[in-house]
Design brief:
Elements: E1 4-11, H1 16-27, E2 32-38, E3 43-48, H2 55-64, E4 68-69, E5 71-79, H3 84-95, E6 100-106, E7 111-117, H4 123-133, E8 136-137, H5 149-183, H6 194-211, H7 213-224, H8 230-249, H9 259-283, H10 285-292, E9 297-302, E10 305-310, E11 319-322, E12 331-336, E13 339-342, H11 344-347, E14 353-355, E15 360-361, E16 366-367, E17 372-378, H12 384-397, H13 404-430, H14 437-450, H15 454-473, E18 476-478, H16 481-486, E19 492-496, H17 497-501, E20 502-513, H18 525-536, H19 542-556, E21 567-572, E22 576-581, E23 584-589, H20 591-596, H21 605-613, E24 617-623, E25 626-637, H22 641-650, E26 654-658, H23 663-673, E27 677-679, H24 687-696, E28 701-705, H25 711-716, E29 719-723, H26 730-733, E30 736-738, H27 745-779, H28 790-793, H29 797-816
Parallel strand pairs: 19-26, 19-28, 26-27, 28-29, 29-30
Antiparallel strand pairs: 1-3, 1-4, 2-3, 5-7, 5-8, 6-7, 9-10, 9-11, 11-17, 12-15, 12-17, 13-14, 13-16, 18-30, 20-25, 21-22, 22-23, 23-24, 24-25
Helix pairs in contact: 3-4, 5-6, 5-9, 6-8, 6-9, 7-8, 8-9, 8-14, 9-29, 10-15, 12-15, 13-14, 14-27, 14-29, 15-27, 15-29, 18-19, 27-29
Length: 824
């Protein structure tokens, strides 16, 4: 069976039971294979058989369950249509795209009105599809993706909740004050007249059926779909108080009216819902900040002229001009100009990176100095920024294993609370001495209202959203929430040597001149380096290039004379090079090259042995028949590698290094870096076996590598961590991608994982503890104990509503603290 995956942005969900309602509703559809609903993100990820149903069927089912889908509508001016068949062709073409909800095409005006699921498709996609069908689009607008239709839907929901709350407060506040004034004898005898109850009834009714109608509607649709959510409890609790009061007001039963209780319950719940909508919006702030990094326009060269165009109209291969201080609009390769580029918003690296022709540039980074011309290589959804946003969104939408317990409890929570409320009523009615019907009813309402499944549903996803969002800002991308959770359990980290601990490029580390042995006629160290670099200028060997690079750095710093031009250059395979430099025959290469050429070694043998013992490659330099010096080249430690390994060991992790190098070289690097264990002379295909060995010994292992050569080991490890530039295939391979090539990001990622899981556990402790403690209190478990405060012995439903309304706000607030928490 061929399956398809789609993600639907859902509006109106407020608690874990809402998640259950949507999941059950979608699962009932024939052809749906898997459904994952994320409350904090308010999104449903559905895997289904496209042969049996389409996205419109999924949308209809969501709407049937009582919730909405965030959609966007755009108009396109289409050129080239002249008949109904043209319109049909355009419509069919557009319907091939994912996320299309409705299409209306007017042939006379040559305009198409397209409604689509926010985030699934962009205006750019629509235009390209129309052009693919064979028509044009007269379009000067920027992408509606920038308008963030989904955010607009969330803002609309916030405005609606605010309007409902204002109405609730307008009627509830005077009702509450009058009712309390009458109960405490503060407003005179007139307040006890029968007509006052009818006034209270009139004031409570708009709150009950206008402000509270959302709870009736949502609760009904949930029950219709075989589930029950928080709204069922709110509707039940407030309705019991309201309709009992109606009966008393009509004189059909004796007692006290509780209109202020029903109105206060709904108004307080509405207050909590408004705060929740606003707070949930803040948890996704990281994604909005990432989206905001993208510039809206780009300056491109077309037909020999520089013009400003919308960012979405830039095509791969076009030349883009970026002036100093401007954002680089798309990913590309620099073809002209030199500058320093601030990549901190993508990589987390604070220092600007020097750029020259041939270097890659990442879109959304800032050009700090010179004018740059670059060739666009990735645009739209293919840019590094777009991939980062996609990874973060996918991680936030996934469910962490730790959430399963909360989901299981939430599935039975509402029926269980309803049963507890009924049992409470019966106990108070028939078993508690001197208890009245009214007291039993108050206890039932308090139990129904104080129960809060929202906090359980929000405990995990809000923390995951904030944690992954903060990670993205630090250049740390978690592929899913499962990886974020597993990372805090690690006991061992295996680091690939080349490119991870070390730079992966040969670097000159030592220059030894023959003058070290007292030879007065010998050259100085600078002379040896200049002579070797001059001879190697014609070489393409990595070791030769590293010598030239080191010499040129000294020339630029003014510490070395300009390099000479070599003559008669000759590369001797496996040995080195020979060239004439300023009239001298110069040999640069192995000891064997010098010996075969009959060159005197000039007492440098011991120095060569010492360098080799330090895992360095000793390159001999000779001129006019005598060895003039040695140049040592090695793969050096990256900046921060030693610091990162120390931090990992301080966190209690066993740190191992794995390398294909010989044992002596690997041990020398290991000593310098400070790792605990070394696996040397390991072939790429064997790395996974060493990971398995550690796992068999009971270790929970992370593998850190480049994500391509180390793919088998990354797959075998419990958590695969790719360290690279953020544009590599590593982003698809590993569980965690570190965009900047700095090993210090590994302990930062692990610390972030620990902090996020700690926050989740705090949230779950609060969510479960709140319900476990306060539901029995609301039922009256403390009533027999005189030592208990009266406010707890006889917990009023209004206080229950207050506690319930702010319990989920507490959970969201605790998750938001993760944004500023110090990682260690």
């Amino acid at each position: 069976m061929t399956t398809k995956q789609t993600t639907l942005p859902i509006t109106g969900m407020t608690c874990a039971n809402c998640v259950s309602v949507v999941e059950k509703g979608l699962t009932k559809l024939q052809g749906v294979d898997q459904v994952d609903v994320n409350l904090a993100l308010e999104r449903a990820t559905v895997i289904y058989d496209p042969a049996l149903l389409d996205e419109n069927a999924l949308i209809e089912r969501v709407e049937m369950t009582g919730y909405g889908i965030a959609t966007a509508t755009t108009e396109l001016a289409i050129t080239g249509m002249d008949c109904a068949s043209c319109a049909l062709a355009v419509e069919k073409g557009l319907k091939r795209l994912d996320g299309i909800v409705d299409i209306s095409i007017n042939v006379a005006t040559e305009r198409a009105r397209v409604t689509y699921v926010a985030g699934q498709v962009t205006r750019r996609d629509l235009i390209k599809q129309i052009e693919l069908v064979g028509y044009g689009v007269a379009d000067g607008a920027t992408s509606e993706e920038l308008e963030d239709a989904e955010r607009a839907a969330r803002e609309q929901e916030f405005d609606r909740q605010r309007r409902l709350l204002l109405v609730g407060v307008l009627f509830t506040l005077p009702l509450f004050l009058l009712s309390m004034g009458r109960d405490f004898g503060l407003v005179g005898e007139w307040a006890h007249a029968p007509w006052v109850n009818f006034l209270f009834w009139a004031m409570a009714t708009p709150v009950q059926f206008y402000v509270g109608w959302q709870y009736y509607r949502s609760g009904y649709k949930a029950l219709r779909n075989g589930a029950a959510n928080m709204d069922v409890l709110v509707a039940l609790g407030s309705s019991v108080a309201y309709f009992y009061s109606v009966i008393v007001a009509l004189g059909l039963a004796p007692g006290h009216v509780y209109f202020e209780t029903s109105a206060s319950i709904i108004t307080l719940i509405a207050t909590g819902k408004l705060l929740e909508v606003r707070a949930k919006g803040r948890t996704s702030e990281a994604i909005r900040q990432l989206m905001g990094l993208r510039p809206k326009t780009a300056r491109v060269v077309r037909d020999g002229e520089e013009i400003d165009v919308p960012i979405d109209s830039v095509e791969a291969g076009e030349i883009v001009i970026v002036r100093p201080g401007e954002k680089i609009p798309v990913d590309g390769v620099i073809v002209e100009g030199h500058s320093a580029v601030d990549e901190s918003m993508i990589t987390g690296e604070s220092l600007p990176v020097d750029k020259a022709p041939g270097d890659k540039a990442i879109g959304a980074t800032i050009n700090r100095q010179g004018l740059l011309k670059l060739e666009a290589t990735a645009v739209g959804r293919e840019t590094a920024l777009a991939q980062i946003i996609r990874l973060v969104e996918e991680a936030q939408a996934s469910k962490a294993p730790i959430q399963r317990l909360a989901d299981k409890v939430a599935a039975i929570f509402v029926p269980a609370v309803a049963a507890v409320a009924l049992v409470t009523f019966l106990i108070w009615m028939f078993l508690v001495p001197d208890a009245t019907f009214t007291q039993a009813l108050i206890r039932l309402v308090a139990v129904l209202i104080i129960a809060c499944p929202c906090a359980m549903g929000l405990a995990t996803p809000t923390a995951i959203m904030v944690g992954t969002g903060r990670g993205a800002g630090m250049g740390i991308l978690f592929k899913n929430s499962g990886a974020l959770e597993r990372a805090h359990e690690l006991t061992a980290v295996v680091l690939d040597k080349t490119g991870t601990i070390t730079t992966g490029e040969p670097t000159v580390t030592d220059v030894v001149a023959a003058s070290v042995n007292g030879s007065k006629s010998a050259l100085s160290e600078n002379d040896v380096l200049r002579l070797a670099a001059s001879a190697e200028r014609g070489s393409e060997h990595p070791l030769g290039e590293s010598i030239v690079k080191a010499a040129e750095a000294k020339v630029n710093a003014g510490g070395l004379a300009e390099l000479a031009a070599p003559e008669g250059f000759e590369s001797i395979t496996g040995r080195g090079v020979r060239a004439m430099v300023e009239g001298q025959t110069v040999l640069v290469g192995s000891r064997r090259l010098l010996e075969e050429s009959g060159v005197e070694l000039n007492g440098l043998t011991d120095h060569a042995s010492r360098l080799q013992d330090e895992a360095k490659t000793a390159i001999w330099v000779a001129a006019n028949g005598k060895a003039q010096g040695l140049i040592a080249v090695a793969d050096t430690l990256k900046e921060g590698s030693r610091e990162a390994i120390t931090a990992m060991k301080r966190a209690g992790l066993h740190v191992a290094m794995i390398s294909g190098d010989n044992k002596a070289t690997a041990l020398a690097i290991a000593r310098e870096a400070g790792v605990d264990e070394v696996f040397a002379e390991v072939l790429p295909g064997e790395k996974a076996d060493y990971i398995r060995q550690l796992q068999d010994a009971g270790q929970i292992v992370a593998m850190v590598g480049d994500g391509i050569n180390d793919a088998p080991a990354l797959a075998q490890s419990d958590v695969g961590i790719a360290i690279g530039t953020g544009t590599d295939v590593a982003m698809e391979t590993a569980d965690v991608t570190l965009i900047r090539g700095d090993l210090r990001a590994v302990p930062e990622a692990l610390a972030l994982s620990r902090a996020t899981i700690k926050t989740i556990k705090q949230n779950l402790f609060w969510a479960f503890g709140y319900n476990v403690i306060l539901i029995p209190v609301a039922a009256g478990i403390l009533y027999p104990f005189a030592w208990a405060p009266d406010i707890l012995r006889q917990l009023h439903p209004i206080l229950a509503a207050f506690a319930m309304a702010f319990s989920d706000v507490f959970v969201i607030g605790n998750s938001l603290l993760l944004r500023r928490k110090k990682l260690s």
